[in-house]
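sry for the spam today, last one i promise. C-alpha cells for design, 121 residues
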C-alpha cells in the first residue's frame, strides 16, 4: 500500500492547513487509516483514526475540536483539516494504514507515508 502525504507548509499560529494522503488503489488492504505526528525530540503520537467502511473517527485529546479526519472514497484520499494551529503543532505529519482490527492501537501500523512537515510560528 503506497501512501503519499501532501499539504504541509508554514503557517502562523491560529491558521489552518489541510493535509492529504493519497492511498492508491489497494483499498482491500485498509481497514482503517490514521494521522500521526512526530514533534522534534518527541515520540511519534497518534492524532486521529478513521475506519474506512463506517467512517467512525477517534481523536487524541490534544487535537480534538481542532482537527478533523475525513476521506474521499472516490479519490482514495484521506484528509486532515487542521484549524487553530498552535506552535506546538509543529511536527512531521504522517498518514498510516492497517488492515487488521487493531485500529485503536498506536503501534503495529504496517503502511506509512513519507511524511509532510508542518511548521507553525
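last one done:
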Amino acid at each position: 500500500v503506497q501512501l503519499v502525504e501532501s499539504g504541509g507548509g508554514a503557517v502562523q499560529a491560529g491558521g489552518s492547513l489541510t493535509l492529504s494522503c493519497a492511498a492508491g488503489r489497494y483499498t482491500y488492504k485498509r481497514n482503517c487509516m490514521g494521522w500521526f505526528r512526530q514533534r522534534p525530540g518527541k515520540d511519534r503520537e497518534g492524532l486521529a483514526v478513521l475506519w474506512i467502511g463506517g467512517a467512525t473517527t477517534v481523536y487524541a485529546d490534544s487535537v480534538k475540536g481542532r482537527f478533523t479526519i475525513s476521506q474521499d472514497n472516490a479519490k482514495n484520499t484521506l484528509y486532515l483539516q487542521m484549524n487553530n494551529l498552535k506552535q506546538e503543532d509543529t511536527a512531521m505529519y504522517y498518514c498510516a494504514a492497517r488492515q487488521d482490527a487493531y485500529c485503536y492501537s498506536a503501534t503495529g501500523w504496517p503502511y506509512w507515508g513519507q511524511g509532510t512537515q508542518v511548521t507553525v510560528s
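The chain is about 0% helix and 45% strand. ok im logging off now
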